[in-house]
Amino acid sequence: MVFRILLLLFIVISISFTYSAVTGDVCAIIASSISDASQVFRPGSSQYALDLEHFALSAEQNSSCSVEPGSAQDVSTILQILGNTRTKFAVIKSGGHDLNPKFSSTPGVQISMARFNQLQFDAQASTVEVGSGMIWDDVYEQLQAYNVSVVGARTTGIGIGGYIVAGGGYSYKTNQHGLASDNVVAMEVVLPDGEIKTVVGSRLVDRDLFFALRGGGNNFGVVTKFTLKTYPQTEVWGRSIIYSGTEFASVSAAVLNYTSNNKDIKTGIQCTFATLQGQDIIMANLFYDAPAPAPGIFDSFLLIPSISSDIGARSYLSLIQSANTNLTAGVRGIYNTISHTAVTMNLVESMQNQSSFYGSMLQSNSLLLNGYVIEPFLPEAYHHGDTDTAYPPNRNENIHPMNIYYAWTSESSDSIMLDAARQTAASLQQIASSNGILASAKYPNYAIFGTPIGDLYGENADRLHHIKNLVDPFNVMGLTGGFKFE
Ligand SMILES: Cc1cc2nc3c(=O)[nH]c(=O)nc-3n(C[C@H](O)[C@H](O)[C@H](O)COP(=O)(O)OP(=O)(O)OC[C@H]3O[C@@H](n4cnc5c(N)ncnc54)[C@H](O)[C@@H]3O)c2cc1C
């Protein structure tokens, strides 16, 4: 017994010694082991700065170095080095839009997928192969030439990698075609032991990995390529209307009218109740997948007097790129969420009240903006996939994910804002529960760090644990940040 304890102690001491002694050298080991397609960047270089850049400043950290692998083989080499040296905090970054600190940043080795930026359209199969380091804007732009598009993000700058792998991806086309993850046909992935594998959705033998990689987070390897379904794309109609907070009664009535009556799967809306520098404002994002909406469908929004309106027929790319989300890029930020199964006036009023309450309370703590986004989907949204996915765990529940966003400037306010984001979600959760509309699973891409795995994956959590243990017995992916199955 004493011998065992001494042995364990010896192992722990040697691992921590190896870790601290080796961190700096790992960058050199990687640099000398990868091919010319890939490169390591050191602090001070402009590429290093780009590789570390995130949407939210609070999600960034300085790393020992960054590495841009240019081939799946080099991702494999890098993962093996990191695993063997137990170099902690090696993290993957695709679009860098995860707001949770340490989920895609690290003091160790920052892996940037930026060189996985190739796109190949297959007109016959109606699919496109895309590199996991691309942002959705690039995919939409390159597919314009073929008059097709894919199910992807609703705003500019979002990475394909995190959007699909870390949550599944809600889109303006979700009512029509499901989550982005429902539209994945195959993936190329580097497993935690370095094996490069093509996982095909229609192959029974790949079923577990295909399930886990779509929404289960970065726990099962590094995805290098996705094959996605494409759909014919015409011009679309929509974008944003901004109203004064004084129009709350009309806008909330319009939201309820839409959620009660709309059955048209070509629609998508997001309605944000926000406080911007102390002022209550409301923003409606409207979408219709044709150059003009079906008559009357959005009239209740269009008839309300607005501060500004940017609605009209345009390309899908233009719709995505004219989103005003980059107004808060580069400041500090956090998301949190609850999920609900229906929209009640009580819930909408509570969102507005929470926004106003915290908006005025946190003014002196450098709050720029808080936003409470209602994102209603039709039940059809959850019945498009051919195979099951890590998220959502229950497709018979009509989940509406609510996005709660706080943006602020001062680092000294971090803990205040994180507390507020947690408290406000808890209050809304209680209200949804008392209204009988609380859904069982939270959307992982909106959930704040520390959210229990069971709250995200429900009855899928055990299966995901099991797959994780099979695929990654040495817990290489545990060296990265993110929601973990450990
Ligand atoms: C302004 C804004 C708008 C948004 N709009 C939407 C929206 O319309 N719909 C929606 O569903 N979500 C939306 N989100 C949430 C978004 O989907 C998540 O933040 C998502 O994780 C971002 O992906 P990324 O690749 O940019 O992030 P990153 O920060 O690069 O990565 C996020 C996570 O995924 C992991 N990861 C990244 N690439 C890979 C890979 N290749 N293999 C394995 N793991 C990987 C990372 O390690 C990290 O844990 C939005 C977020 C922001 C900030």
UniProtKB/TrEMBL annotation:
Transmembrane segments: none annotated. Gene3D superfamilies: 3.30.465.10. The keyword Transferase does not apply. This is FAD dependent oxidoreductase. It comes from the Eukaryota. Keywords: FAD, Flavoprotein, Oxidoreductase, Signal. The keyword Flavoprotein applies. Belongs to the oxygen-dependent FAD-linked oxidoreductase family. Pfam families: FAD_binding_4. Coiled coil: none annotated. Residues 1-20 form the signal peptide. Residues 59-233 form the FAD-binding PCMH-type domain. It comes from Lentinula guzmanii. PROSITE patterns: FAD_PCMH. One of its GO terms (molecular function) is oxidoreductase activity.
